[in-house]
Design brief:
By secondary structure, the chain is an all-alpha fold. It has 2 domains: about 5-25 and about 430-505, no CATH class; about 60-215 and about 230-255 and about 280-410, Glycosyltransferase, CATH 1.50.10.20. The protein is about 50% helix and about 0% strand. It has helices at about 5-20, 70-85, 90-100, 125-140, 145-155, 175-185, 200-205, 235-245, 280-295, 315-325, 330-340, 345-350, 355-370, 380-385, 395-405, 420-425, 430-460, 460-475, 475-485, 485-505, and strands spanning about 195, 200. It has a two-stranded antiparallel sheet. The radius of gyration is 27 Å and the shape is globular. The protein starts with a helix and ends with a helix. Mean pLDDT is about 80; it is low at about 1-35, about 40-55, about 415-440, about 445-450 and about 455-509. This is Squalene cyclase C-terminal domain-containing protein. It comes from Kitasatospora paracochleata.
């Protein structure tokens, strides 16, 4: 079977031989939207603007060039977590910056421009705190900082067991899930962290839709209840909550694998008014996420009010991590593949250039899904993230060798060519490849036809008749053999051979 990878490589080789058309740039683009919390960042699909100068006074140890006011600790934590998982030792300045952002009471704000000034407790951020704890746990050491953070989480737990973005406000599924994962990273059982008898898992369960919900929404998580108390399924809340429900944290390293697809929430008589049991929570949300990925073309769709309709790269990344943590890597594979084929613009083409949070998310996905982080849809994610921050203290030999051998790999278009049944649709690279193949193939056939016509005009009548008969009844393979006597056609055969090698050795599956 001729795969899109073969066709794309053959088309490209044919294009080089013909020396003709140029292809349009069809890469998806995305830019962050300034959300209420950085856990929702990077979900817009508006065309990316050209890179702008970084704001004056950015700390030397910080990853990224954008304004860190809303996501400084968030993006730093994700970047450090992803780099450590890939055996990169970050610069001391990068770690020191994150540690220095912690407040005296143990929490983290989104960003502290002046660490000499005491934190305002009302502005401390549970999302930033939760990600910082997971980053410091991944780095190792830092027990004093993580212990203080756990105490801060305990002190700011709501009466229903949940956590809010800022202390003193109603809880939400995203913040609660991140807090649960942070407790796990710090070696603390969330079921033992309670407020008024309600644990962290109880708090998380208050946002999950149960048997009272329509069948197509059961198992999903709402961000928050509506004023009347009703819950509505939310994609990002479900994707992030699923990781905590499955007992997961960042980075995802589980090798657990269930043979069966995730099971939808069982609803027996009398279960309509009951909360989803914690034991069934991860399976129920995994089943819902799997259905949403299938319906969306192996990616989740934005459902944030006011957002431009389109793919939600952030939620899709969390869904992949959560499904793998829950033991369903098979159900996550196509979404991981879709991210490889389409996520480059989200990670690398924001208005401030590389988005370290998005790049780190893709890097975490690549490792969890057992894909090549040095060739994720054609992009060296490890180097892309390294280049977004201070020079690391140490990189593994594999990273150094890859950077030396392919210095432009971080500038690749990110068009991971895959089978249609793996990514649920056609990537930009696939469409370009098909278009080029059609054009080049048509040109080759026209060239062959002209050569036959010229030979027919100068050959004896009997020879002409034989040639016409061959042209009418011969196969495409016969034509290729006949045409292979010219230098151009021999090069075309080399292109087909190269396409076969590309398809079987591209390292993206």
């Amino acid at each position: 079977m001729i795969t899109p990878a073969r066709l794309g490589a053959a088309a490209l080789a044919g294009l080089l031989l013909a020396g003709t058309a140029t292809a349009p740039a069809l890469a998806d683009s995305a830019s962050p939207t300034a959300p209420a919390s950085p856990s929702t960042a990077g979900t817009s699909t508006a065309p990316a603007a050209s890179a702008s100068p970084a704001p004056a006074g950015l700390p030397a140890g910080l990853y990224g060039k954008g304004d860190p006011s809303f996501d400084g600790v968030w993006r730093q934590s994700l970047a450090l977590t992803a780099l450590v998982q890939n055996e990169v030792t970050p610069a001391d300045s990068a770690v020191a910056w994150l540690v220095g952002q912690q407040c005296a009471d143990g929490g983290w704000p989104s960003y502290r421009a002046d660490t000499a000034t005491a934190c305002d407790p009302k502005t401390e951020d549970s999302n930033a705190t939760a990600l910082a704890v997971q980053a410091l746990a991944a780095l190792g050491g830092h027990r004093e900082q993580t212990a203080k953070a756990v105490e801060w989480l305990k002190a700011n737990q709501n009466a229903d067991g949940s956590w809010s973005y800022n202390p003193g406000t109603p809880g939400d599924a995203d913040s609660t899930a991140l807090a649960v994962s942070a407790l796990l990273a710090a070696g603390t059982d969330p079921s033992g962290v309670t407020k008024e008898g309600r644990s962290g898992y109880d708090g998380l369960g208050t946002f999950q839709l149960g048997c009272a919900a329509p069948a197509e929404q059961r198992g999903a998580f709402a961000f928050q209840p509506a004023p009347g108390g009703a819950l509505t399924a939310n994609t990002l809340a479900s994707a992030q909550a699923a990781l905590a429900a499955a007992g997961g944290l960042l980075p995802v390293t589980t090798t657990n694998r269930l043979n069966d697809a995730p099971k939808a929430l069982p609803c027996a008589d009398g279960a309509a008014g009951q909360p989803v049991p914690h034991a069934a929570s991860a399976e129920a949300v995994s089943a819902w996420l799997t259905a949403q990925l299938t319906a969306g073309g192996q990616h989740l769709l934005l459902d944030t009010p006011g957002a431009t309709p389109g793919p939600d790269f952030n939620a899709t990344s969390w869904a992949v991590l959560s499904l793998i943590q829950a033991g369903h890597p098979k159900e996550a594979a196509s979404a991981a593949d879709w991210l490889a084929g389409n996520g480059y613009a989200w990670a690398a083409q924001g208005k401030n250039g590389t988005d370290p949070a998005a790049t780190a998310s893709l890097l975490l996905v690549a490792r969890a899904a057992k894909l090549d982080p040095y060739n994720f849809g054609g992009t060296n994610l490890v180097q892309l993230l390294i280049d977004a921050g201070p020079k690391p203290a140490k990189v593994p030999a594999a990273a150094a060798a890859k950077a030396a051998s392919e210095p432009d790999a971080t500038k690749a278009p990110g068009s991971g060519i895959t089978e249609p049944d793996e990514n649920g649709g056609f990537s930009a690279g696939w469409m370009i490849g098909v278009g080029l193949l059609v054009g080049v193939g048509g040109g080759l056939l026209l060239s062959l036809n002209r050569r036959r016509t010229a030979r027919a005009a100068t050959a004896p009548a009997a020879t002409t008749a034989t040639s016409d008969s061959t042209a009418t009844s011969g196969t495409a393979a016969d034509d290729a053999v006949a045409a292979g006597t010219t230098a151009d056609d021999a090069a075309a055969q080399d292109a087909v051979a190269a396409a076969t090698v590309t398809d079987e050795g591209d390292g993206t599956k």
